[in-house]
Amino acid sequence: MSQSSTSPDANIALIRAMQDVFNTGDLDAIVARLAPEFVINLAGLPEPMRGRDAWRQNAEVMRGAFPDVHARIEDIFAAEDRVAVRLTISGTHAGELLGIPATGRSIQYVSHEFYRVADGLIAEEWICSDMATLMRQIS
Q1: Concatenated DSSP letters of 15-39
Q2: Distance between CA atoms of 134 and 57, rounded to whole angstroms?
Q3: Please, what CATH class does the domain formed by 8-138 belong to?
Q4: Which positions ≥6 away from 121 have C-beta within 8 Å?
Q5: For the residues of 78-96, what is the DSSP string, one character each?
Q6: Residue 78: which pLDDT band, with cuts at 50, 70 and 90?
Q7: Rounded CA gap, 57 and 105, in Å?
Q8: Residue 65 in contact with residue 96, Cβ under 8 Å?
Q9: How crowded is residue 38: how many other Cβ atoms within 10 Å of its Cβ?
């Protein structure tokens, strides 16, 4: 396991700040916290996605479908260069998601997310969201 140049507490603070900014919708401020070679590992995808632009595109899809999306940290802890987070994500389905037109329904689901921090930037993420619950709520 590679070592980060920052402490676990600093890494937690970085992820908390990223989640706070995500809730405001300031995607530029989050992209600034991502390493240039950022890697996204999404559960269910056979290959990782790479780069800040890929992250932004995913976030724009989410914000387009749920303009009021809000991620609440339920649990967060860190060891060395890794941070683990359990989130409750909520919002209103006000735009298309995966071909499903807006329903106006409120959604709430859990996401388990893991991050690797390097040199004070988020270098990699692993996202395992309860997509079955989300899809049931908008179908």
Answers
A1: HHHHHHHHHHT-HHHHHTTEEEEEE
A2: 19
A3: alpha beta
A4: 33, 34, 35
A5: EETTEEEEEEEEEEE--S-
A6: very high
A7: 23
A8: yes
A9: 22
Token look-up 């990699």 returns 124
Residue with tokens 């339920």: 74
**Predicted pLDDT at 6:** 81
Question: And the tokens for 75?
Answer: 């649990």
Q: What is the CA radius of gyration of the chain?
A: 15
What ranges do the domains of the chain cover?
Answer: 8-138
Q: What pLDDT does 27 receive?
A: 96
The tokens for 47 are 């290959």
Q: How many residues does the chain have?
A: 139
Share of the chain above pLDDT 70, in %: 96
- CB count in 10 Å sphere of residue 50: 13
Structure tokens at 123: 């270098």
Q: For residues 69 and 52, give the distance between their C-alpha atoms in angstroms, rounded to a whole number.
A: 20
- Nearest CA to 34 out of 50, 10, 47 is that of 50
